[in-house]
Amino acid sequence: MIFRIKKLSKATRMSVSLLPIAVLALMPGFAANAQNAPGIEEVNVFGRGATRQLQSLSAIELAQFPAGTSPLKAIEKLPGVNFSSADPYGSYEWSTRIVVRGFNQNQMGFTLDGVPLGDMSYGNHNGLHISRAIMSENIGQVTLAQGAGSLGTASTSNLGGTLEFTSATPSETFAVNTNVSVGSDSAQHLYGRVDSGALSSGTRFFASYSTQDTNKWKGDGQQEHELVNLKLVQDIGTATVTGFYSISDRAEIDYQDMSKDMIGRLGRDFDNYGANYARAIAAATGKFTGNVNSLDDGYLDGAGLREDDLGYVSLDLPLQDTLTLKSTVYLHQNHGQGLWGTPYLATPGGAPLSIRTSEYDIDRNGWITSLNYVLDQHTLNAGFWTEENDFNQARRFYGETSLTTPTRSFSEFQSNPFFTQWEYSFNTKTLQFHLKDTFQISDVLQVEYGFKSVKVEINAKTIAGDNKTGSIETDEGFLPQIGFLYELNDSYEVFGAVSRNVRAFIGSATGNSPWSASQTGFNAIRSTLQPEKSSSVELGWRFHSGALEGVVSGYHVEFDDRLLAIQQGSAIIGNFNALANVGRVKTLGIESGVNWQASDTLSWYNSASLNRSTYKDDYMSGTTLVRTSGKTVTDAPELMFTSELSLDTANLFTKLNYKFTGARQYTYLNEGSVSSFGNLNLSLGYHFGDLGFANDLTAQLDVTNLADADYISTVGSGGFSNSDLTGTAQTLLPGAPRQFFLSLKASF
């Protein structure tokens, strides 16, 4: 099923999306009828009653972060989650990384209300980042499955876990909610949402808008984001129709990737030249100043620009008492550019540098349908997901004509290139089917078993550059999953699961893709290359007794046919990768989490994980044997620990959070690593209650990195290499220093 919509201008899209707010603001009795949107109750944090390792966070938890914080950052306290980002919000996409049980985010699955978000890679080819799909204030729940996601999850990348985001439901009562925030580095965040309440037709909807603007914590430039969310719920008899639409416009100026040598020589606060155009021009000609000694120490600037439209319509239809149909159609359009000011290619007749872009255009649509049938002790669920994705990707260069004044802005989409190095189009067709039975054998024993089938066909066509025309297919007909839940008594339960998963090949000219190699390389590997696969086993124990609730689980993962794209040269040069299957990875680990509700107002949460992910094979890089067998997987800390103390009274609330992250490797031979670090964050707020025309006025102060720790947050930003004995691998990003944010929230 194919859908096409005309791409509207930014101004038109914003106007159309804000129209419901304007209409509601003029409704009679606006002030008299305004009420708070009902809060969302705390959810089952430790996944009680599930056959798999699950944890969830509610909107209440997400609200206790600085306004505009990515929901990804909120989950870093959960057992086994390694999250990193160079900014305090966790939303700077170039730096954002998630690793769970040794799998990185490109090997996980992500959905919003069941709609696939792709693998959340920076060079988007099949989805978009959650921060661009929905405002954090509009998220009702986040659920993480560390090991095996549900069989019905719409993802072809979930070798490891899945993250399912659920949007908030429009309120039953009319409400207007606002959030205004300011903070360090001239940060500003504005959020507004209007809920219609239940209209006479039974319709409920909300319309919301947010804008966020902050200077970088070092260097020059801003990171800006505008976002519109609309959601509508309509009951028609026993059926429910839900519609959602999101518009996102994001522009973020990059931080420069650093190496250990650069940090020691230039300091952690060194960044791209930015506003110092004269220095960038001089450096491009080899005239270095201030301890800079190479072209790659600093560039003119870098940026990521993304425009997205995401929408879906979903139908929940009870066909009879025991049979329910759920069907969703969705579409997503994306236009993006990643910019670098490169000194490796001069502008003809102009400056000794140019602006290099990686350009992305996504047009995808899909259909997800499932039937749920209850038959005595069995609950049968069957469904399919189909998607067609047209992805266009290009590498272009744009000129800087002046030697004294920049003629282009890195915050704006570029036009009129002087050179197109390559351009390719990829058509990806996905079909996934699943069948599952949940068998309640007795009051205390439940077994869940089933399988899914995955077929992904990719066809590539060359528009310009090196010929990469060709096709490749991922076809896995039987990927089984089985789990059990045994209730020992009212307070204790044992669970376990075994699953088999695959990560389909991706249609892209970059990343871990068959087409990231040259045409010769693609021809050589296309008939022998295997998609990555994993087999996961987990066993755990949950307890919920009185004031204590928690979980302990152990797991074993075998990861086969690992794909490795070895970067050739500096990332900015953009050479073709060398891609190959390089063997297996073995992971063993244990995770635990516990929450102690010491009183009605005081709680103490702790989580810890011990993970050992190792490569099991050596591999050949050209004619060189790379001895990776027994080495630790990159960006996979062995030890992590979180402790969080929360106080919540009728008026005062506060939270003190500490996260420890163990040492991490950033080379395959473990000849480059970053030290462990701890990060302390504080949230302090006060509910003033009703004040004048404002209801439930709340002030909140957030301090991130309270101890002002100096640490490396992101590793692998410029890719991973075999070794870094010289400390010159430019692939590290320091974490943000201490930052302050003040928010005022109210309803009207």
What can you tell me about this protein's structure?
The chain has 748 residues and is mainly β. Helix content is 7%, strand content 51%. It has 8 helices and 38 strands. The chain is globular, with a radius of gyration of 25 Å. The two termini are 43 Å apart. 49% of the residues are buried. Residues 1-43 have low confidence and may be disordered.
* Strand portion: over 45%
The chain-level structural class is mainly beta
Assembly state:
single chain
Query: Based on DSSP secondary structure assignment, what is the total number of beta strands?
Result: 38
Low-pLDDT ranges: 1-43
| End-to-end separation | 43 Å
Integer-rounded radius of gyration: 25 Å
Number of helical regions: 8
> What would the average pLDDT be, to the nearest integer?
91
- Tell me the overall shape: globular
| Main sheet overview | 22 strands, antiparallel, barrel
Outline:
This protein has 748 residues and is mainly beta.
What are the main properties of this structure?
748 residues; mainly beta; 22-stranded antiparallel beta barrel; 5-stranded mixed sheet; 7% helix; globular; disordered N terminus
List the helices and strands and how they pair.
Layout: H1 10-25, H2 30-33, E1 54-58, H3 59-62, H4 71-74, E2 81-84, E3 97-100, E4 103-104, E5 109-112, E6 115-116, H5 130-133, E7 139-145, E8 162-167, E9 175-183, E10 187-195, E11 204-215, E12 222-236, E13 239-253, H6 260-266, H7 277-284, E14 302-320, E15 323-342, E16 354-375, E17 378-399, E18 419-440, E19 445-464, E20 470-487, E21 492-503, H8 519-525, E22 532-545, E23 548-560, E24 563-566, E25 578-581, E26 585-597, E27 602-615, E28 619-621, E29 624-626, E30 639-648, E31 652-661, E32 664-665, E33 673-674, E34 677-691, E35 694-704, E36 712-715, E37 732-734, E38 739-747
Parallel strand pairs: 5-8
Antiparallel strand pairs: 1-7, 2-3, 3-4, 5-6, 7-8, 9-10, 9-38, 10-11, 11-12, 12-13, 13-14, 14-15, 15-16, 16-17, 17-18, 18-19, 19-20, 20-21, 21-22, 22-23, 23-26, 24-25, 26-27, 27-30, 28-29, 30-31, 31-34, 32-33, 34-35, 35-38, 36-37
